[in-house]
Amino acid sequence: MKKIIAIALIFFSMLLTSACYNFNNDANKSSTDFFAMDTYMSITAYGGNADKILQQAKDQIKRLEGMWSVTDKSSEIYAVNHSNGKPTEVSEETSELLTFALDISEKTSGALEPTIYPVLSAWGFTTEQYRIPNDREIKNLLKKVDYKKVSLSEKSVQLKPEMMIDFGSLGKGYASDIATEFLQDNGVSSALLDLGGNIKTIGAKPDGSDWKLGVKDPEGSGNVGVLSVSDIAVVTSGNYERYFTDRDGKKYGHIIDPTTGHPVENDLQSVTIIAKEGRLCDALSTSLFVMGLDKAVDYWRQYQDFDMILITDDGEIHITEEIKSKFTIDSDHKNMKINVITAK
């Protein structure tokens, strides 16, 4: 199911690209499509020796996947998760990402929880063998979940026995940052990276205009609107993306609330984060979705180092004031109320 959704996302991204972009220099266009981090990815760049550079960028992402896989026995994260409580040496990149994850976890009061993997696995979202754990099982699993019990000293990571780290909520965002830096260092000044729905743009389009990115309708197959952006990252999260349905028709989404051990159920349908860093977008799209509307708005007002678009269950759009001028609502959704979030 995850692969099907990823394919649909990338197909839609490519469709949007072909429909909205009219490049005059497609002869300088290079692209690559590949599967990594359990999703389909694509990178499109313009100019120079882009073919070779894109292959190297792809190799960078594959390398990071090999370091952070939860199931690959040769990965650094697998070694950390199966260390039986002993310290484990990791690379600088893994240490940097874990440091970032723990910082966001602290800022969001645990809404981002990099140790939620045992609960996520119990629901079947890691294997697609879906089930509903009973309350006793969830209670016991939550004893293994607590970012505050992760010990990180330079490049040494130590977990309590039976705890597990998973970078599923921010690994693709970090990978987009690494790939972007590599592309820019090698002369690429215009590119679009789509890492399983994690979007990163380098510069503007070759003709100097903004990239146009669709913001998906959580209740349909189209878009609620289009963002016009340049040199930025955009990531959307919501439980409409991956879920299963029980016999009574109730949906269970893949984003887990760390306080309850159950899929998130609140007033939000989707959270779109816009910021310079892909890792920040990835982490906040998940954690603010967990928080719900009011706490998400409070968090933005406290930090204001990103923009966001929140779509609620009542069909309203809440958008931060700086990005409002870059968002055009789709003609089929003109009836949706738009609320502008101000700093106060």
Can you walk through the features of this model?
The chain has 344 residues and is an alpha+beta fold. The chain has a domain at 71-158: T-fold (Orthogonal Bundle). The protein contains nine helices and 17 strands. The strands form four sheets. A nine-stranded mixed sheet has the order 1-2-6-7-10-13-14-15-17. It has a three-stranded antiparallel sheet with strand order 3-5-4. A three-stranded antiparallel sheet has the order 8-9-16, covered by helices on one side. A hairpin with a 6-residue loop joins strand 8 and strand 9 (223-229). The radius of gyration is 20 Å and the shape is globular. The chain starts with a helix and ends with a strand.
Report the CATH C-level class of one domain: Mainly Alpha
CA-to-CA gap between the ends?
42 Å
Number of strand segments: 17
Q: Percent of residues in beta strands?
A: 15-25%
CATH topology of one domain: T-fold
- The CATH homologous superfamily of one domain is named ApbE-like superfamily
Write out the strand line-up for the largest beta sheet, numbering strands in chain order: 1-2-6-7-10-13-14-15-17
Radius of gyration: 20 Å
Largest sheet: 9 strands, mixed
> Which regions contain 5 or more consecutive residues with pLDDT less than 50?
1-24
Q: Work out the helix count.
A: 9
Mean pLDDT: 91
- What's the CATH architecture name of one domain? Orthogonal Bundle
Sequence of secondary-structure elements: HEEHHEHHHEEHEEEEEEEEHHEEEE
